[in-house]
Structures
1.
Amino acid sequence: MFGHLPLWPDSASTNAGNVDALYIFLLLVSGIMIALIFTVLTVFAIRFRKRRGQRAVQIEGSHQLEVTWSIIPFCVMLVFYIWGAVIYFQERTPPQDATEVYTVAKQWMWKFEHKGGQREINELHVPVGRDVKMIMTSQDVIHSFFVPAFRIKQDVLPGRYTTLWFRATKAGTYHLFCSQYCGTQHSGMVGWIKVMEPSDYEAWMSGGGNQPLAVTGQKLFAELGCVTCHRSDTQGRGPDLAGVFGKPVLLQDGRTVTADENYIRESILEPGAKIVQGFKPVMPTFQGQVSDEQLNALVDYVKSLAGPQSGRPADSNPAAGASPQL
Amino acid sequence: MSDHNSASEHTPEHISEHISSLGSCLAIWLALLAGTTLTVAAAFIDLGPFNTIVALTIATIKATLVVLFYMHVKYTHEKLTGLVIVSAIFFLFILLALSMADYTMRLWR
Amino acid sequence: MHTSQAVADKPEHENPALLHHFATKGQQKNAASLGMWLFLAQEVMFFGGLFCAYLVYRYKYFGDFGSASQQLDIRLGTINTVVLICSSLTVVLAIRAVQLGKRMALVFWLLATILFGLAFLGIKANEYAEKFEKHHVPGTSFSYHELLPGQEKFPAAERQYANPHHAEMFFSLYFAMTGMHALHMIIGVGLFGFLAYKAWRGKYTPDYYTPIENAGLYWHFVDIVWIYLFGLLYLIDRHR
Amino acid sequence: MATAVVSDSGERETYLNAGYGLKSWLLTVDHKRIALLYLISITFFFFIGGFFALLIRLELLTPAGELVQSDTYNKLFTMHGQVMVFFFLIPAVPAVLGNFLIPLMIGAKDLAFPRINLLSWYLYIIGGTLMIYTILNGGVDTGWTFYTPLSTEFLKTNVISAIVGIFFAGFSSILTGLNFIVTIHRMRAPGMTWNRLPLFVWAHYATSIIQVLGTPVVAITLVLVALERLFHLGVFNPMLGGDPLLFQHLFWFYSHPAVYIMILPGMGIVSEIVCCFSRKRIFGYKAMTLAVVGIAVIGFLVWAHHMFVAGISLYAALIFSLLSYFVAVPSAIKVFNWTATMYKGSITYQTPMLYAFGFIGLFTIGGLTGLFLACLGMDVHVHDTYFIIAHFHYIMVGGMVMAYLGGMHFWWPKITGRMYPEGWGKLAALIVFIGFNLTFFPQFILGYLGMPRRYHAYPAEFQILNVLSTAGATILAVGYLLPMVYFVWSMRYGKPAPPNPWNAAGLEWQTHSPPPTFNFDEQPVVTWEAYNYDEIDEIPEKEEVPVAH
């Protein structure tokens, strides 16, 4: 029943090594601090214990000392800050060519959909040595995607996307936890991340004859009538979506935003929120008409219109069938 | 009793309060009414983003008049009152500014 | 520091208005005044949470807030602003009256304040009733379809596709903020009623009128909150 | 004055024998009696919260979650958090020791607003009653943080009664803080200048600032949550265009500084104890006062470090992380100064000093692990894991509760006029220290391993550390029950306490034990600096050790 006493978690991503290094540094520095303070306390406690005929020597204080023991720790803390900020910045900046996995969290399960259309529940297969970007949203409450072995965590919010990325380094099966309290079965909202060797992964991916996500999106794009306005000829009442993704968009009110997943999502659900310069706010909202999964497909389709990107993963080839004329 | 508080050291009978003159009461009242008229009028003129700024500036001027004259802050010898007001505004500013920092900077990427 | 003058004025304890644990009237009055100002600081932060929510959503749903704001009755809002400013004047006059020792004038101005306060609340109730009729009260029955009747300056398309949830957010904040403000008004009116009764009984003299003064501070604060609410809720985007 | 040992305690009128009826207690405006009312109420809530904690630990003994259902478990940790934070930790030191001691320490007859003080207690009791109602009516399972939209749209439990209860407790806290600020400004005895104030008073001054300016924000936020449940207001509901992160901003704007409401008064207590038992003035009085006020102010600027993985802007996270390090500096100053105070002292080891040692050690560990959490890259991994749980229990339980118990032992003779049994006191301090570390240290390891908080069942590999933690919790429980027993015992059988059993500095020791209703026989006049142990020890001591054993 009692196994070994675990002291260190599995380390299976590029990020895990970075965080571990930082952790060891923090442990070392604070270990030294603790040792210092405890030693001094103990020495004082013994050396200056009450003795007959000996009185305490009153000391006013020392400004030099106060300044010293403010500035030196603060400088050390700045190192913590910068190191931590660099890791955080890396964690939050997904590489351009990452394999994307769409995630929908709900009470109390994780639903994943690969670009190739493969769907999984509470289990996610990823390859070793390739960047994977999670594009996540929630159907109900706030959840949190936490893989201890990768040292990554990101809250999954209803009503918008949050993203996160990792590159697994070691094949194996790792815990996936929901770490934001989400109701009754919070502790049951767990799963497994299965990291596979690339060859196994390709085999697994080609298993089912799924329809790629972007193709699903393309069909939806036609069914919902989006094509009538969003087209490249001048009669289009909406902006042409080809090549939009990832580029800055000039808005009517003069602001410029980057067309990321959240922007596309928002433009579908709340078309009036950010009007592109030169267009009228005529698009109806699709709030309540498309599910989160359909939304993911639409977003993926619009992304595929951005044109062929270098290093697109081989497992998902959605741009192939999509014509920029649409 | 001067010992109780440094602020009251020089005014043993601190009770002696400022009594506002009728004229100044009415003058402030008229100023507040004028401010109201002005802010409503300004709201109907298209000033672009300045509409909000003008509205808030006039509101702040009105609020300052009320605080200084109607709430007698101008006449009080008590520095502490000012300190309380300033710290309330300061912490309100912290709340608004740092929250908005998050919302505005979310668009940056 | 000034140790030699310690408790120099013990005899003051013969004054019945002086509570046992204070040494002098000045100390007591200063304590009450500081306490009231701290209470107002607390109120600033209390409303501050609402203002923060307003700011965030005004920023997020800039246009929708503008058009939803036009659903408010600017005439009633302006009248209410004037009413509140008048009530602030009557409070100041009440304090002046008690400082000058005019008992009946004090009672009169307090009653005038109550009257203005009630007028404000009456108009506010009227506005709320209108919101109920127009289904502009957030919740399940909220509806925003008859948006902007007769406001041709908006293109029809914009009206059709405006997001009702964002307008609902405006009304949510409108009700939360003005409701919280109205609650403070009700408390204030009750307070002045109590004080008017006490004043009529002759409790307050030029020597002791701290409760009147503190209630006045409270009333002015509520007035200031309204000045901002008026600007933020009624006056945005009127020029369109 | 210290020499006027009272032998005729039966004759002298004290605040305790000034009246006996229930009415004389429930309608009292005497700050000392109100402090005792608080003492009884917060102790009651401490044991309720502690009971929930024990059930949580028992449940976590096995990985499968066999003791209670997951729903029940969720209610247990929610109510443990709400009861402990809002009904024990926040009022504990200020409303009991602060209430009792601030007027005594500054030489006043009472707080500035005695009736508001009583009102605070009644507000607390109304809030507490609502909390008890919530518990008896089936509990609440939002987590103490009430995160939306879970709390507003999805849970069917007694969220509103819990919120209203906390709202009342909040206003009790605001009024207490307001009362303290006015008292410290207006009621000081002649000669009691700001630079002569004991650090305990300074700490409460800083705490009060947070109570007055922070609490209203969480009050209005919880009102909005309640309105959202009642009327579907939608301010925090993403389905209606609301932003759940706004709730988190508003909630943590108060709830981060609230941590300082809990720890600052504890720091004040430790300053008093360390000086007294080292027979020394505090090292760096000015720096210590600046540090408490600094912590209170900077504490308002760091709240979003609770939200690094919540989906806030990357750049906002960078700002809040940096600001969080600023608040660590004054905390570090305090630890260094306490240590330096012991240098060349004449240290004795009575129970309060043992707790002070425990506080400094545990607060140091808690504070240093706080640096881990302020560090962005680190926080992403350990956020919402047991690392956090361990960290804030090191601050709140290891820090604040240690200090509170130390303070209770230190001032118990003053409060009751009786000595507690010193041997038992030392034993209990030791048990608490060992039990605490055994409970919470393994949780740091669990956290880095990745065990999420608020988990009813967990993977089997975490079990051995959880078993250690549960074992520690039972020891800790004994450590907390022990003082409860001997304190009650000592009220009747304890040795009568002299006015100044520790030969301590500070005005509160210059009046009788227990003090008369109006605190001092005559208005004290202060002509000395705080912690003037050089002057006190100049008077040749009659007995070598004036304290009980």
2.
Amino acid sequence: MTANVLLFWEAASSVAGEVNAFFVCMLILCTVVAVGIASFLIYCAIRYHRKAENELGSQTRYNIPAETLWTVVPFVLFIGMFIWGAKMYFDIVRPPDNTINMYVVAKQWMWKVQHPEGQREINELHIPAGRAVKLTMTSEDVIHSFFVPAFRTKQDVLPGRYTTIWFAAQKPGKYHLFCAQYCGTSHSGMIGWIYVMNPREYQAWLTEGAAEGSLASTGEKYFHQFGCANCHNFTNQGRCPDLRNLYMRPVQLTTGQTVLADDSYIREKLRDPDAQIPWGFASNVMPNFTGIVSEDQIVALISYIKALGPAPGTLEPASPGAAPGPYGAQPAAGATGATKAKSQLETR
Amino acid sequence: MIEPLSRKSYTFAWLGLLGLVLLNTLIAFLNLGPWNMIIAVGIATVMASIVAGFLMHALYDSKVVRIVLAGGVIWFLIFVSLTLTDYMTRGWLGVPGK
Amino acid sequence: MIETAVVQTVKKNYLTEKQGILSWLFSTDHKRIAILYTFSITVFFFLGGFFALMMRLELLSPTSWLVSVGTYNKLFTMHGIIMVWFFLIPSIPGTLGNFLIPMMIGAKDLAFPKLNLLSWYIYMLGGLVTVYALFRGGVDTGWTFYTPFSTSYSTTYVISAAVGILIAGFSSIITGLNFIATIHRMRAPGLTWFRLPIFIWSMYASSMILVLATPVLAITLLMVAVERIFQVGIFDPALGGDPVLFQHMFWFYSHPAVYIMVLPGMAVISEIFPAFSRKPLFGYKAVAFSSIAIAVIGFLVWGHHMFVAGESAYSALAFSFLSYCVAVPSAIKVFNWTATMYKGSVSWDTPMLYAIGFVGLFTIGGMTGLFLAALGFDVHVHDTYFVIAHFHYIMVGGTVMAFLGGVHYWWPKVSGKMYPEGIARLSALVVFLGFNLTFFPQFVLGYLGMPRRYAAYPPEFQMLHVLSTAGASILGVGYVLPLCYLIWAWHYGRDAGPNPWRATGLEWKTESPPPTHNFEVTPIVTAEQPYDYEAMKEELQLV
Amino acid sequence: MSETATLACREQFATPEQQRETSSIGMWIFLASEIMMFGGLFVAYSVYRLSHPQAFQEASAHMDILLGSINSAILLTSSLSLAFAEHSAQAGSRNLLAIFLIATMLIGLAFLGIKFTEYYEHYQQHEAPGIWFDATGPHASGIQMFFVFYFVMTGLHAIHMIVGLGILFALLLRTMLGTFTAEYHSPILFGGLYWHFVDIIWIFLYAIFYLPGLHK
């Protein structure tokens, strides 16, 4: 039980302290109100207890000042709670720049994690302390939910779509990972551990397990295996877009709209190639890879495209300013991951 | 008691409705981009109001009836607008995936 | 001043007017239909309670020991389905609402008595289809039927359960329709809107939701069934569908459904407080309008079930704000009930004990709702035991307490007999303590991160789970006791007389049990305000 | 209304006027509930229309606009015929009432006949999701979604039509039995409310399923 209480207060991520603070403040406020109401109820029940069988109470019906008071005061307090809750929400869900980007593919009933360096883990996740880690997540079957109580954060993992979660663990340790969204028979078995390590130990762990090369290099393998390279072969003959310098850049579509070439866009191209055709390209050219490429392979391909970097002759790498899209905060993070992965590619 | 409308006014309402079906169909042949859907549903709403107002006598019935009808329509609008708010505002606030 | 003329003594009442089982099964008398409902919901309550008890026993140990993981999933699904659709939603409207609405407004019956009987049959049909699904092997989707698990992955009897709920939904719609039409057009002469008891206002608000939300549930479950039968992807992303849309449609019904469940509870409590304080309900108009406000704003907040489900951040902000708005009318009600006791003549009879318990538990349930409406906090506690504890404080601590309080309050009217006061007070206490022991530890569990719907869990949570299970067994005793002594009292209780509590309201102006047509002469209401205890003075002096 | 007060009404009501008004409110509440039922489908349609715009456009071109337009005109005409029936009932003319009821039912049957012809055409063209469906091309899943909604929504509408025909038939029987008079004919009006409401639903179904595919 004492261990529980310790865990209770453990602020294991950068946002956990704020959640605890909110909880404590709310707890104090609500306890005061609840105790107040309860005492008043008990006081009235005793003080005004019926003495004679034919007794009547006072016949007061309204007291407008009192009623106004207990309408306005709660409302003002509620607005305060809303504002604090909303502020905390953006602290929790908006990732900082410069995150380590990993991919999570959930399926009944396991968590599969892919590190950019190529490590794969199942129901375990090793991360360095003090660094912000961003997970791009999807599911192969039903809805799951990535929940780390010690980090005070959670995000549903949906099939057919990417959602993201981020956290910066504060101190080394071992923390529970739960699936919080009911996902079928072994829902309660879809649990794992997050291992937060010292940065140095983490580096050691990374080098120990780096057997099959980076995620981007795996992606390159698939890029050839699935025949992507036959068309997207960088010669830019006009049939297929050049994928260099694509990631996190705005793409103009045939419809005239502009979309950001983020993870979701690239994933969508494999699933429904003709949905958002870039300007100047024809539809019905690219085959549909639904059912052919798995979610795991898609994230590898995305990492490869991310690592492809700028086109020859383009001096500047993808910079945050170049992407005025809704995910304005991401490119820097993406670029960091990309350069890291790219350097690994080049060393091969 | 609802006073009956004359057969003549029913016939006029019917002719108006047929005219609006024709109008709606003809407009649909023009490519107006997103306006196509807005106009189609708009004309349909006008037609529905004619049916409700005259053929269903909502205009002549008691106030409660009009409140109930308005309630149904307003609740549907609440449903559709708050649901679409989610879909149309994805990505507005710079939170990835939201 | 409420004038009624009970001239001759009535020999026959609604219970003795006709005899035989068929006279019950084909009765269109709202009072008899209320009794039919009481039987059915009692059966479903104890069935759902049995599943809950099995779950609590399973959770005694961190590993799965009593039932298999799959069975546990079916247990919580069936517990949810039966408790929500076959107990909570029809509980107070079907029993007390049916019995009291016509009596409180001085009518002979509801507007559509045949539809009323039909709604009971439809409800029973829905119940039977659901029980059929249960006997074929149950359902394991959770009562929320989240897609794509329910449409493409579950191998259990999802369609039967969905169809059962869909059928029961039509029963809800008919009941709501009947109540609204009755309240609008069947009131006794002189009974204007602001002379109505708050019970009627709250039931009216609840009926609004029944009529406007339930059809959306019907169509959503129909789509789930269509998707399962024809293997087309309405909500399955593999076929171009969107599982989040299912959640929008489901919660558009299911959040207002929370208010369908709790507004009737508030209706009962708003009657008990004045009657046992011998004082008009404080702030009548504010309480009346807050019921309507809850019904309306309650439709605007469903997105708070989806803060981490992938809805847009903008939408989440809007839904969070609206959720705080819906808390205001609830707070107004709590303060007004409390103020009703101030300077009253407070008795400690069982209904009042339940009512005081209700306010305490509903306050805790409501205030933990404020935690959950905070966006950033919900991210942590969403889908944990914190949520479980929160809504059980509202549903069980609120609605079930109110239901039991109401049953005791109107028992003399329904049966003509008094229940045994001593044991009733004791069992009210047992329910209150058992309830808190069951569900308070779950708040702690939730903040510690225990996710809901887990058959097995990490061992550090065991202590709190054991406490909760201990509470559940006490709570179970607290629920069986009233069943026993109320059945006893039906036969052996002492005669109650028309108005044992010296309460106001038209239902107390007629015999107990009431005659088939409720009133010998249609009452004419001349009192300017409801809860007119000034007019009771004469009657009280006679005691 | 003094002469109507002498008419019989059900025992829970004080006057026939109270009975008529209460039933009218009940009927309208039921229709509000129906708005929400179809409303759920309209919401789902809107969401998918936004996420699969091209597919819905393309699929809508597979609709038979001629049959659809004829059906719209037919259904509106049936409403007119029923309005005439109500008028005859209010005038107390039993024969005309029966004739217009029969006419309404026949026109309604014609609507259903055309509707099922369309269904059969779609079936033959392999456009019946879950039964016989193949679509190729980039938007296959979106096209299937369109047809799912087409069948569910028009199917639910057709079920309402069939129920409506049943109601009209019952009203016709009661007319022939001589139940309805100039003073008491409110069931005809309530049947009419339901029928006209079903008409309104079709007006919207026509706009969202048939019209989007007409332009290129």
